[in-house]
């Protein structure tokens, strides 16, 4: 559904959300607006499915690690490459209309 709706329709709700969070004119607005989209979510999910074996999660559970400990100690470090790829796409993207609307870029 997200790919069918033009991105310009979410500019005003994005700005309202960023202003309520107090992120207008700050870097978190730029990062969250760029990374928390359908493409970033899909890419990170596919990267996680391909790079984190189920046996590793199961062995952490058998060793006594809970959900959050497994997430923090195993999953987050193994997703470093996927997060870097999303960051490269954010830097390389030239869609600054949403970033300007979110108030992250001044000028």
From TrEMBL:
| Keyword Transport recorded | yes
Domain ABC transmembrane type-1 per the UniProt entry, residue ranges: 11-80
User: One Pfam family, short name please?
Assistant: BPD_transp_1
Q: Does the keyword Transport apply?
A: yes
What residues form the membrane-spanning segments? 23-44
Please give the InterPro entries that the UniProt record associates with this protein.
MetI-like (IPR000515), MetI-like_sf (IPR035906)
Report the main location listed first in the record: membrane
Topology relative to the lipid bilayer, per the entry, is: Multi-pass membrane protein
Q: Where in the cell is it found?
A: Cell membrane
Q: Which UniProt keywords apply?
A: Cell membrane, Membrane, Transmembrane, Transmembrane helix, Transport
Q: Which PANTHER family match?
A: ABC TRANSPORTER PERMEASE PROTEIN MG189-RELATED, ABC TRANSPORTER PERMEASE PROTEIN MG189-RELATED-RELATED
Protein name from the UniProt record: ABC transporter permease subunit
Originating species: Kineococcus mangrovi
